[in-house]
């Protein structure tokens, strides 16, 4: 017998939340995606904004349930746009649970907002409690406001290194120009669908970074070094042998042929230069 209706696509309902310091652009990123517009005036989110846009019609102001198609699946996405201000902690903490995706945002011109990412993860972890599992959640990091290139203080490799070493997606975005926004959401939704189809576990391909924690930590340490001694990890006044030994160890760890961690090439060059500079002055 012929069925009267077309088989509906496998549908899926997912919950997504936004996280990050106040004023980094969380609401603007969501607005850019849902409403294709940008608001330059800052309107702090009070507590949580939740929304639905259905068939591109905005049902309620600031509401964002989006219907998207990923492969053969129809997905209904509920976006909860959280306030970044510490004052709203009590409101936010209710919303962490049952989340499949997190949009983690920082402002590339504001170091503090980048440094705060770890405490956002900690807040979520704490609220989920001992039985909560962050491995079942897809995280996408948005390095936002890339249009303000003059004030940029966190470069791409630094942000990418942080994200990828945690197995998170990373995108450079501007809610103002729209750069990166659609690509970010597409990849994000695709990963969430992969996760759901994989029984709620992050698929192996993006659950582990293609570089080691030691490599990531070393690159970060080199970035933060004040001088060549510190960069090579030797005491000031160390001997030629000590410098060369430290250099060889770092060179093996960070050589661009061996290490694919973001920023490894610059770190490697810095180490080569540090060694040259030190050896020049050691008799
Ligand atoms: P809370 O709701 O307080 O947590 O802040 P939020 O993260 O939602 O920030 P919001 O989206 O409201 O944006 C804060 C300010 O940054 C606004 O004045 C926006 O116009 C501006 N802004 C957001 N994204 C961008 C961007 O990509 N580029 C530029 N230049 N400004 C942006
Ligand atoms: Mg907001």
Automatic annotation (TrEMBL):
Which PROSITE patterns does this chain map to?
DNAJ_2, RAB, RAS
Key words, A-Z:
GTP-binding, Nucleotide-binding
Q: Which SMART domains match?
A: DnaJ, RAB, RAS, RHO
Record keyword GTP-binding present: yes
The record, for InterPro entries, names: DnaJ_domain, J_dom_sf, P-loop_NTPase, Rab, Small_GTP-bd, Small_GTPase
Q: CDD domains attached here?
A: DnaJ, RJL
The organism's place on the tree of life at top rank: Eukaryota
What residue stretches are annotated with the J domain? 227-283
Q: Does the keyword Cell membrane apply?
A: no
Q: Name one Pfam family in it.
A: DnaJ
Q: What does this protein do?
A: GTPase which can activate the MEK/ERK pathway and induce cell transformation when overexpressed. May act as a nuclear scaffold for MAPK1, probably by association with MAPK1 nuclear export signal leading to enhanced ERK1/ERK2 signaling.
**Assembly notes:** Interacts directly with MAPK1 (wild-type and kinase-deficient forms). Interacts directly (in GTP-bound form) with MAP2K1 (wild-type and kinase-deficient forms).
Q: What is this protein called?
A: DnaJ homolog subfamily C member 27
Q: Which organism is it from?
A: Apodemus speciosus
The organism's taxonomy opens as: Eukaryota, Metazoa, Chordata, Craniata, Vertebrata
